[in-house]
Design brief:
single chain, alpha+beta, Hormone Receptor, Insulin-like Growth Factor Receptor 1, Chain A domain 2, TSP-1 type 1 repeat, three-stranded antiparallel β-sheet, two-stranded antiparallel sheet, TSP1_rpt_sf, glycoprotein, heparin binding
Length: 243
Amino acid sequence: VHPNVSQGCQGGCATCSDYNGCLSCKPRLFFVLERIGMKQIGVCLSSCPSGYYGTRYPDINKCAKCKADCDTCFTRNFCTKCKSGFYLYSGKCLEKCPDGLEANNHTMECTSIVHCEASEWSPWSPCTKKGKTCGFKRGNEVRVREIVQHPSARGNPCPATSESRKCIVQRKRCQKEGKGKKNREEKRKKSSKEESKETKQENKGRAARRQNREQRENKNKMQPKKRKAPNKEPNTAPSDAAH
Protein backbone atom coordinates (compact mmCIF):
# COMPACT_ATOMS: atom_id res chain seq x y z
CA VAL A 1 0.00 0.00 0.00
CA HIS A 2 1.21 3.46 -0.93
CA PRO A 3 2.36 5.36 2.15
CA ASN A 4 0.00 8.27 1.30
CA VAL A 5 -3.06 5.96 1.29
CA SER A 6 -4.87 5.43 4.56
CA GLN A 7 -6.53 2.14 5.49
CA GLY A 8 -9.27 3.38 7.86
CA CYS A 9 -11.31 5.52 5.40
CA GLN A 10 -14.70 6.93 6.37
CA GLY A 11 -17.62 8.61 4.63
CA GLY A 12 -18.02 6.13 1.75
CA CYS A 13 -14.41 6.23 0.62
CA ALA A 14 -12.93 3.00 -0.69
CA THR A 15 -9.40 4.45 -0.58
CA CYS A 16 -8.32 7.76 0.89
CA SER A 17 -5.44 10.04 1.73
CA ASP A 18 -4.87 12.11 4.81
CA TYR A 19 -4.09 15.08 2.60
CA ASN A 20 -6.45 14.65 -0.41
CA GLY A 21 -9.42 12.91 1.24
CA CYS A 22 -11.16 10.19 -0.80
CA LEU A 23 -9.22 8.74 -3.70
CA SER A 24 -11.94 6.25 -4.74
CA CYS A 25 -15.48 5.47 -3.65
CA LYS A 26 -17.44 2.42 -2.66
CA PRO A 27 -19.82 0.99 -5.33
CA ARG A 28 -22.77 3.17 -6.49
CA LEU A 29 -21.29 6.33 -4.94
CA PHE A 30 -20.09 9.36 -6.92
CA PHE A 31 -16.61 10.82 -6.56
CA VAL A 32 -16.40 14.63 -6.57
CA LEU A 33 -13.67 17.13 -5.74
CA GLU A 34 -14.67 19.90 -3.32
CA ARG A 35 -12.52 23.04 -3.10
CA ILE A 36 -11.57 24.15 0.40
CA GLY A 37 -9.50 27.31 0.12
CA MET A 38 -6.57 26.54 -2.16
CA LYS A 39 -6.93 22.79 -1.77
CA GLN A 40 -9.31 20.25 -3.33
CA ILE A 41 -10.61 17.36 -1.24
CA GLY A 42 -12.17 14.24 -2.71
CA VAL A 43 -15.55 13.15 -1.25
CA CYS A 44 -17.96 10.33 -2.03
CA LEU A 45 -21.69 11.14 -2.32
CA SER A 46 -24.87 9.21 -3.14
CA SER A 47 -25.81 11.94 -5.68
CA CYS A 48 -24.03 14.86 -7.28
CA PRO A 49 -24.45 18.32 -5.70
CA SER A 50 -26.06 21.31 -7.41
CA GLY A 51 -24.02 22.50 -10.38
CA TYR A 52 -22.74 18.97 -11.16
CA TYR A 53 -23.99 16.01 -13.18
CA GLY A 54 -23.08 12.38 -12.64
CA THR A 55 -21.37 10.03 -15.07
CA ARG A 56 -20.93 6.33 -14.42
CA TYR A 57 -17.85 4.48 -15.61
CA PRO A 58 -16.90 0.82 -15.08
CA ASP A 59 -14.16 1.68 -12.62
CA ILE A 60 -15.54 4.88 -11.01
CA ASN A 61 -18.57 7.15 -10.90
CA LYS A 62 -17.72 10.83 -11.20
CA CYS A 63 -19.48 14.16 -10.77
CA ALA A 64 -18.61 16.69 -13.47
CA LYS A 65 -19.37 20.41 -13.38
CA CYS A 66 -22.22 21.95 -15.37
CA LYS A 67 -21.61 24.86 -17.71
CA ALA A 68 -21.00 28.24 -16.12
CA ASP A 69 -24.48 29.58 -16.93
CA CYS A 70 -26.23 26.42 -15.72
CA ASP A 71 -27.33 25.90 -12.12
CA THR A 72 -28.33 22.22 -12.45
CA CYS A 73 -27.92 19.92 -15.44
CA PHE A 74 -28.63 16.40 -16.65
CA THR A 75 -25.52 16.28 -18.83
CA ARG A 76 -22.98 18.91 -19.75
CA ASN A 77 -25.02 19.91 -22.82
CA PHE A 78 -28.48 19.70 -21.21
CA CYS A 79 -29.28 22.15 -18.45
CA THR A 80 -32.37 21.77 -16.22
CA LYS A 81 -32.10 25.10 -14.36
CA CYS A 82 -30.25 28.26 -15.28
CA LYS A 83 -28.43 30.72 -13.10
CA SER A 84 -29.82 34.19 -12.50
CA GLY A 85 -30.01 36.33 -15.64
CA PHE A 86 -30.50 33.38 -18.01
CA TYR A 87 -33.65 31.72 -19.37
CA LEU A 88 -33.97 28.00 -19.96
CA TYR A 89 -34.96 26.80 -23.43
CA SER A 90 -34.54 23.24 -24.72
CA GLY A 91 -31.81 22.44 -22.18
CA LYS A 92 -29.84 25.61 -22.90
CA CYS A 93 -29.44 28.82 -20.94
CA LEU A 94 -30.04 31.96 -23.01
CA GLU A 95 -29.81 35.65 -22.22
CA LYS A 96 -32.65 36.37 -24.68
CA CYS A 97 -35.48 34.13 -25.81
CA PRO A 98 -35.87 33.24 -29.52
CA ASP A 99 -38.47 34.91 -31.75
CA GLY A 100 -42.02 33.75 -31.03
CA LEU A 101 -41.21 33.09 -27.37
CA GLU A 102 -41.15 35.27 -24.29
CA ALA A 103 -39.19 35.26 -21.05
CA ASN A 104 -41.09 34.06 -18.00
CA ASN A 105 -39.46 35.76 -15.02
CA HIS A 106 -41.30 33.46 -12.60
CA THR A 107 -39.96 30.17 -13.97
CA MET A 108 -36.92 31.70 -15.74
CA GLU A 109 -37.87 29.86 -18.91
CA CYS A 110 -38.70 30.77 -22.50
CA THR A 111 -42.39 30.03 -23.08
CA SER A 112 -44.85 30.40 -25.94
CA ILE A 113 -46.68 33.70 -26.29
CA VAL A 114 -50.32 33.39 -25.23
CA HIS A 115 -52.89 35.69 -26.80
CA CYS A 116 -56.16 36.73 -25.19
CA GLU A 117 -59.30 34.77 -26.07
CA ALA A 118 -62.88 35.91 -25.50
CA SER A 119 -66.18 34.04 -25.64
CA GLU A 120 -69.01 34.74 -28.08
CA TRP A 121 -71.24 37.77 -27.54
CA SER A 122 -74.38 37.32 -25.49
CA PRO A 123 -77.78 38.33 -26.99
CA TRP A 124 -78.67 42.04 -26.86
CA SER A 125 -80.40 43.06 -23.66
CA PRO A 126 -83.88 44.69 -23.60
CA CYS A 127 -83.95 48.35 -24.62
CA THR A 128 -83.67 50.47 -21.44
CA LYS A 129 -83.23 54.06 -20.34
CA LYS A 130 -82.15 54.98 -16.84
CA GLY A 131 -82.84 51.43 -15.75
CA LYS A 132 -86.41 51.40 -17.09
CA THR A 133 -87.95 49.56 -20.04
CA CYS A 134 -90.94 51.91 -20.49
CA GLY A 135 -91.80 55.59 -20.59
CA PHE A 136 -89.40 56.44 -23.44
CA LYS A 137 -88.92 55.98 -27.17
CA ARG A 138 -85.11 55.97 -27.56
CA GLY A 139 -82.84 54.03 -25.22
CA ASN A 140 -79.82 51.72 -25.15
CA GLU A 141 -79.26 47.98 -25.31
CA VAL A 142 -76.05 46.14 -24.36
CA ARG A 143 -74.35 42.78 -24.86
CA VAL A 144 -71.41 41.20 -23.01
CA ARG A 145 -68.79 38.47 -23.36
CA GLU A 146 -66.29 36.79 -21.04
CA ILE A 147 -62.49 36.38 -21.14
CA VAL A 148 -61.70 32.66 -21.42
CA GLN A 149 -57.91 33.00 -21.81
CA HIS A 150 -55.86 35.83 -20.36
CA PRO A 151 -52.78 36.86 -22.39
CA SER A 152 -49.15 36.47 -21.43
CA ALA A 153 -46.80 39.45 -21.16
CA ARG A 154 -46.28 39.75 -24.92
CA GLY A 155 -49.66 38.39 -25.98
CA ASN A 156 -52.39 40.37 -27.70
CA PRO A 157 -54.44 42.33 -25.13
CA CYS A 158 -58.06 41.46 -24.41
CA PRO A 159 -60.85 43.23 -26.33
CA ALA A 160 -63.78 45.04 -24.75
CA THR A 161 -66.15 42.78 -22.86
CA SER A 162 -69.29 44.91 -23.35
CA GLU A 163 -70.92 46.88 -26.18
CA SER A 164 -73.81 49.36 -26.24
CA ARG A 165 -75.97 50.73 -29.04
CA LYS A 166 -79.00 53.00 -29.47
CA CYS A 167 -82.42 51.39 -29.76
CA ILE A 168 -86.01 52.50 -30.40
CA VAL A 169 -89.09 51.06 -28.73
CA GLN A 170 -92.83 51.75 -28.91
CA ARG A 171 -93.55 54.39 -26.32
CA LYS A 172 -95.67 53.03 -23.49
CA ARG A 173 -96.58 54.22 -20.04
CA CYS A 174 -94.93 52.69 -17.02
CA GLN A 175 -96.92 50.93 -14.38
CA LYS A 176 -95.84 51.16 -10.82
CA GLU A 177 -94.45 48.01 -9.36
CA GLY A 178 -97.31 45.82 -8.27
CA LYS A 179 -99.92 48.22 -9.71
CA GLY A 180 -101.25 45.72 -12.23
CA LYS A 181 -101.72 43.10 -9.58
CA LYS A 182 -103.24 45.67 -7.24
CA ASN A 183 -105.70 46.77 -9.92
CA ARG A 184 -106.74 43.20 -10.54
CA GLU A 185 -107.26 42.67 -6.83
CA GLU A 186 -109.29 45.88 -6.56
CA LYS A 187 -111.42 44.91 -9.55
CA ARG A 188 -112.03 41.48 -8.09
CA LYS A 189 -113.00 42.98 -4.73
CA LYS A 190 -115.20 45.57 -6.41
CA SER A 191 -116.88 42.92 -8.48
CA SER A 192 -117.46 40.81 -5.37
CA LYS A 193 -118.92 43.82 -3.57
CA GLU A 194 -121.19 44.63 -6.50
CA GLU A 195 -122.32 41.04 -6.73
CA SER A 196 -122.94 40.99 -2.98
CA LYS A 197 -124.85 44.27 -3.22
CA GLU A 198 -126.98 43.00 -6.08
CA THR A 199 -127.67 39.79 -4.19
CA LYS A 200 -128.74 41.77 -1.13
CA GLN A 201 -131.01 43.97 -3.23
CA GLU A 202 -132.57 40.93 -4.88
CA ASN A 203 -133.10 39.26 -1.54
CA LYS A 204 -134.57 42.48 -0.15
CA GLY A 205 -136.90 42.82 -3.13
CA ARG A 206 -138.07 39.23 -2.83
CA ALA A 207 -138.67 39.72 0.89
CA ALA A 208 -140.70 42.90 0.22
CA ARG A 209 -142.78 41.21 -2.47
CA ARG A 210 -143.43 38.27 -0.18
CA GLN A 211 -144.44 40.59 2.63
CA ASN A 212 -146.84 42.51 0.35
CA ARG A 213 -148.33 39.29 -0.85
CA GLU A 214 -148.86 38.07 2.69
CA GLN A 215 -150.46 41.39 3.67
CA ARG A 216 -152.90 41.22 0.76
CA GLU A 217 -153.77 37.65 1.62
CA ASN A 218 -154.43 38.57 5.27
CA LYS A 219 -156.52 41.57 4.22
CA ASN A 220 -158.60 39.44 1.92
CA LYS A 221 -159.21 36.94 4.70
CA MET A 222 -160.48 39.65 7.08
CA GLN A 223 -162.98 41.22 4.62
CA PRO A 224 -166.52 39.54 4.43
CA LYS A 225 -167.49 37.95 1.22
CA LYS A 226 -169.99 39.94 -0.89
CA ARG A 227 -173.33 38.23 -1.66
CA LYS A 228 -174.34 38.00 -5.23
CA ALA A 229 -177.47 40.04 -6.20
CA PRO A 230 -180.51 37.99 -7.42
CA ASN A 231 -181.15 38.01 -11.10
CA LYS A 232 -183.95 40.43 -12.10
CA GLU A 233 -186.63 39.11 -14.49
CA PRO A 234 -187.14 41.08 -17.66
CA ASN A 235 -190.12 43.45 -17.94
CA THR A 236 -193.31 41.77 -19.37
CA ALA A 237 -195.55 44.82 -19.82
CA PRO A 238 -197.98 44.51 -22.71
CA SER A 239 -197.01 46.29 -25.81
CA ASP A 240 -199.04 48.99 -27.43
CA ALA A 241 -200.26 46.54 -29.98
CA ALA A 242 -202.06 44.48 -27.36
CA HIS A 243 -204.22 47.35 -26.30
